[in-house]
Amino acid sequence: MAEDWAGRAISSGSAIRLATLEPIITAWSFCGIPQRVEQWITQLDAMSGSNPILRPDLGTHSLYLKALRNVQASIIGVEESDNSDEESAACVEQAFMQAKLCTNYLNEMLLTNMNKLDSQQDVDAMSSMFKTTLETCGCASRLSLASPTTLSDESHLTAMLDVASLIKIDDDQDDELSHKILEVMGEAYVETISQLHQTASVAASVDVADNEASCFPLEVEKLIRDYDDYSQKLLGDARDINLRLRLYKEVLTGCSSIGIKQSDTEHIIRIMKVILEQITHLNSKTAKNSRETVELTDLFSTMVLLTKTAVEAPQDRTVVLSELWDNAKPFFYRRVGGSGLGKVGRAQLISAMRTALDDTDSDVIEGFLSSFEQKREKKNGWIGAPFHYYN
After folding, report:
1. So what's the pLDDT on residue 245?
2. Distance between CA atoms of 258 and 127, rounded to whole angstroms?
3. What is the mean pLDDT of each run of 10 residues along the chain (391 residues)?
4. Whole-number Å distance between alpha carbons of 159 and 329
């Protein structure tokens, strides 16, 4: 057995590396035995005093969280079978316990390691720990919602938001470290929003937590504003564009899937406004005719389609669609003097607008869209149109 061999090698003082032992720890993690993972981490940490290369890195620590996640997965598997109310309540409690253990361990790692992100490998490992912890919180919350006979003191959305709030960027951190932490923050926020909209979707399907589904637009608006504030203050350039687009896409996907109510309209419009403002800001920081452009058609089309459920009155909807069109203009394909940041397919955007208005009289649709189909852009690009709706 590999573990027996490793034990003999360690006892005999043979030269051994952390990479040699990690498959053993990974196996225990995969089997959902966090106690054995913790034992190995403790042993390696003790040995690192005389042999620093054996000090557990963040990747090794992340295996403990994954072990807890696998324990939770087995608990959820038990709950999916026919259980009594008491058994269901016990499963929910145990699922939340794994989420708490993950959160506490992550917080410990942040306190001891957040200022020591020396490599991209460390950044990826810390991002992985956030992702695993957020998954356990989201799964516990959805298990509780799917078990209406159980009562939990946990808030179904707050658990994820509390994890996201653990990450902070200090003013006294240098630019390189701040950039690494910002990347971790972005990855954590993407996963937070993913877990929030999955949980909100379940909440929307059960009467007991209907109010929690309506919190989604408000909470994600706060998250993207926080991320954008940090990003602009620290970096002010387009280095995080791909991560930022993933964040926006996750937000819009969540807004589309939770069953929007009219009370959500203002939040949805403000979310779009933040996204458009930041896209314009990034465009201003990107060189014209840059070869490293990104595809923005899907992002703009998703916002257009979202107006169908977010804005009930067709007349108001056309106002929003017009402003989305104006903000997309700098990114149309083959524009002279156009954007260096990305591209938007003009025909695809018009098609999305047609779908967004398909509950409106056909004459109104054609009259509205004809102005866009017949327009010819000016030679010089727009900087970006202000988004005035619900300003």
Report:
1. 87
2. 26
3. 64 69 92 95 88 90 97 84 78 92 95 89 95 95 76 63 84 80 92 88 65 70 86 61 87 79 78 89 69 84 91 89 92 64 89 90 82 57 58 56
4. 40
Q: What is the pLDDT of residue 266?
A: 83
**Cα distance between residue 248 and residue 240, in whole Å:** 12
State whether the Cα torsion 127-133-136-142 is positive or negative.
negative
**3-state percent breakdown (helix, strand, coil) of the chain, nearest 5:** 70, 0, 25
Identify any residues that bridge with 343 across adjacent strands, giving them in sequence order: 295
Q: If DSSP codes are grouped into helix, strand and coil, which group holds residue 344?
A: strand
Q: What is the pLDDT of residue 148?
A: 61
Write the secondary structure of 6-71 as one string of H (helix), E (strand) and C (coil): HHHHHHCCCCCCHHHHHHHHHHHHHCCCHHHHHHHHHHHHHHCCCCHHHCCCHHHHHHHHHHHHHH
Contact 191, 135 (CB under 8 A): yes
Terminal-to-terminal C-alpha distance of the chain? 66
pTM attached to this predicted model? 0.84
279: how many CB neighbours lie within 10 A of its CB?
25
Question: 213 and 201 in contact (C-beta within 8 Å)?
Answer: yes
pLDDT value, residue 304: 94
Q: Which residues contact 339 (CB under 8 A, 6 or more apart)?
A: 283, 286, 288, 293, 330, 331, 381
Tokens of 223: 């998250």
> What are the phi and psi torsion angles at 343 (to 5°)?
-130, 145
CA distance 50 to 40: 16
Are 21 and 40 within 8 A, CB to CB? Answer: yes
Helices 362-374 and 346-356, packing angle to 10 deg: 160
